[in-house]
Amino acid sequence: MGIQYLLNRVLRRAIGCGLLIGAFYHGQVTSLQGAEPVDNWAEYPRPEGVSGLVSIAYGNNLFVAAGTNGTIVSSTNGMDWIKVDAGMSGGPGRVRFVDDRFFVSGFAPGPIMSSNGTDWSPVGVFYNDITFANGAYYTVLWTQVGRSTNLTDWTHFTAPSGFRNIAYGNGAFVANGGESFSYVHYSTDGEQWLQVESSSDPE
Predict the structure, then answer these.
(1) Which of 25, 39, 126, 163 has the fewest CB atoms within 10 Å of its CB?
(2) Confidence of residue 179 (pLDDT cuts 50, 70, 90)
């Protein structure tokens, strides 16, 4: 199975809600209604005092975006954004919507989570990225993959390279890392990983 095929399948699931917002350019939130075709974009200014935005997720009828200097913003329509005070600093931050909750990492003092984008609580574990599959959360932290069903009790596995990103779709995990994120691996169970060539085609 080719890596491009896996990545495409994961991406299609991510944009299947019919409203795509995912590009940030010179501090403007760039919005698109309808994932295809991607040629009808509109730009909306970020809220006053908000630092540059670098990551975004959608869930529970809400958009949440994260940036630098502990910045988190939210929007119900992708056009009107409000700044969220979650007591974070540093960054840049990364936001994911996983199992009906938003997860933000990359800030100090540590990763946080929220179901409504307003009230945030500590996750209690450090990670680079997080996903959810088959009733469990999976995290990556360089050479470590974590698995938990309750975000409290964790089992850890050794990753074959420094994983930075992880995603799940169509029965497979995809993770990458290494220098310039050049190492790409896939797994069907989150424990055993196989490295694949980024240029390989689906079989």
Answers:
(1) 39
(2) low
